[in-house]
Specification:
Blueprint lengths: L2 H31 L3 H20 L2 E4 L2 E3 L2 H12 L1 H11 L5 E2 L7 E2 L6 H24 L9 H29 L5 H30 L4 H43 L6 H15 L4 H13 L9 H4 L7 H7 L2 H8 L7 H9 L20 H16 L10 H10 L7 H21 L1
Antiparallel strand pairs: 1-2, 3-4
Helix pairs in contact: 1-2, 1-4, 1-5, 1-6, 2-3, 2-4, 2-8, 3-4, 3-7, 4-5, 5-6, 6-7, 7-8, 9-10, 9-15, 9-17, 10-14, 10-15, 13-14, 14-15, 15-16, 16-17
């Protein structure tokens, strides 16, 4: 960590922990002194247990990217008890959280094997996010305790958005100070990524708060969480199936590269660059995933090409070249009955088309194809130019960039060229800085 990021992390941690202690003392002291302290403490204890359970079982979307259901408990606490109670929950549950450190790791992380600054920063992030958002919610007239749908809707939307924005901003400011990301672009992406999950779980937090204020609500809350945990389990199964599907795609790609010794690692590099271009262009996660699958499978039709042609060390004859040119159609025929997206099928069939219409197999041009196809086409051409082949000397990154720039509007889509050159320029700058 840089010096500025360490100072920032310490500042956030100190402010968050002090605020957490203040809210915890305030909430517990008022609860103990109230006439219904036994009911209040029992409800708080139930929320505390549920909060620990939610934090102990995160859902890993990717290897080191996960979210949990603690937002639901935090929101329920704000709506039923106020922001001070939500902060107290976050602080008092932290010492008891034990969870996997990553998707594939069996190692458990907890307060005793995690750097103190990391634990303090993470809990402080949530404390500040939930307290500020909860306070704004109250200022806008959001009800606490007895909930009214009409009075809740507008303040509730602000509550949800505030939590997402503040939580992301506090974390990304740390990464930005450490030169790991660009703050505003990363913040926008984070909001887009998290918003569907948070928006979908927000009604559960609302109903949980409503149940908590019913007679015997704490017991109903425990029952209510059972189907929620079942839904979590079902979602984990869905992600496992999705990951297995992606692993199968990678296996198919590896099978092809085992057959074509001159293109080892090619599909992976095309996938890597295609994803970077797509994200630079601001495409949705769904489109990025389709592009990645198309990039991995774009040359799958070469499985149907004879090895003597595919691995020929010298120049191909016109007849042999005609055979090679058939690989997009062969790939499309192989996978025509597989439930891939329309975009992925288009990438497999048309990744050798040119923007000016001079490509194959159909000679399509300009906007007759989705820009996703042109993204993979540019990444494919770049990796081919910069890779060592027996029939062609590899070019440097700078030379390949010059060719791509010259071919803008000819072989390559101009918008793709603009994004790709930005990606490559940033990579070169990063390499020079590392040296």
């Amino acid at each position: 960590m840089s010096r500025s990021s360490k100072i920032y992390a310490c500042f956030v941690s100190i402010v968050g922990i002090l605020l957490g202690l203040r809210c915890t003392v305030f909430y517990l002291s008022t609860t103990f002194s109230g006439p219904q302290r036994s009911d209040e403490l029992r409800q708080f204890f139930v929320l505390w247990v549920l909060y620990i359970i939610c934090r102990c079982f995160p859902i890993f979307i990717r290897e080191n990217y996960a979210f949990d259901m603690s937002f639901i408990c935090g929101m329920a606490a704000v709506l039923s008890k106020g922001p001070e109670a939500a902060v107290a929950l976050a602080l008092l549950s932290t010492p008891f959280v034990v969870k996997r450190s990553s998707k594939k790791s069996k190692k458990l992380s907890h307060i005793f094997n995690t750097p103190p600054i990391k634990t303090a920063f993470n809990v402080s992030n949530f404390i500040l996010s939930i307290y500020i958002s909860g306070t704004v919610y109250q200022k806008l007239g959001g009800p606490i305790g007895v909930l009214s749908v009409q009075k809740f809707i507008l303040p509730g939307i602000v509550l949800i958005l505030s939590i997402i924005i503040l939580n992301s901003a506090i974390l990304l400011a740390l990464f930005s100070l450490d030169k790991q990301c660009r703050f505003f672009s990363a913040l926008f992406k984070n909001i887009i990524d998290f918003l569907p999950n948070i928006a979908a779980s927000a009604p559960i937090g609302y109903f949980l708060a409503t149940i908590m204020n019913m007679e015997g609500g704490e017991y109903l809350t425990l029952l209510f969480m059972l189907p929620l945990l079942l839904a979590r389990y079902s979602f984990v199964l869905y992600l496992d199936v999705k990951n297995n599907y992606y692993n199968m795609i990678q296996t198919l790609s590896a099978t092809l590269e085992a057959k074509d010794r001159y293109t080892e690692g090619h599909s992976h590099m095309v996938e890597l660059y295609s994803e970077k271009i797509a994200r630079k262009m601001g495409l949705s996660n769904r489109r990025v995933e389709d592009i990645k699958v198309g990039a991995l499978l774009h040359d799958i039709g070469k499985i149907g090409i004879d090895d003597s042609i595919l691995n020929k060390p010298g120049k191909l004859t016109p007849q042999e070249r005609d055979v090679i040119l058939r690989h997009p159609q062969i790939g499309n025929d192989i996978l025509k009955n597989v439930q891939l997206s329309t975009t992925t099928h288009a990438i497999i069939l048309h990744h050798h088309e040119r923007y000016d219409g001079g490509g194959y197999p159909d000679g399509t041009k300009e906007n007759e194809l989705p820009i996703d196809v042109y993204i993979v086409s540019a990444a494919d051409a770049f990796d081919a130019m910069t890779s060592e082949r027996p029939y062609c000397k590899n070019r440097t990154v700078e030379q390949a960039m010059d060719i791509i720039k010259r071919e803008s509007g000819k072989q390559f889509h101009p918008k793709v060229v603009e994004a790709f050159l930005q990606v490559l320029t940033e990579e070169l700058a990063s390499r020079r800085k590392a040296k």
